[in-house]
Design goal:
Blueprint: H1 2-13, E1 33-41, E2 46-51, E3 62-68, E4 82-90, E5 93-101
Parallel strand pairs: 3-5
Antiparallel strand pairs: 1-2, 1-4, 2-3, 4-5
Length: about 100
Amino acid sequence: MKKLILLIAALTIVPPLHAQPAPPPAAGASVMSDGVVRKIDASGGRVTLKHGPITNLDMPGMTMVFRVQPPTLLNNLKVGDAVKFHAESINDALTVTAIAVAK
């Protein structure tokens, strides 16, 4: 009887096997957004983009200035380019961490 009570107590502590697994931590890191380059400030490491929704930041479409890390990402861009980009909030600054001309 004592063994049965211990078994029942142990089973109530164990999480159910059908629990949902946690999403991978990098799942949002690969989300790309659409935009159009409006202005490039290469010396300041900034780009102005007119963009659609940025889902990983829960942000609607608008036109705004982003920091760019690393600034060399700006080397192959020109005003008017349609782009795919990834933005993150780094130290409370919205920052483009990947950008490429859309094909």
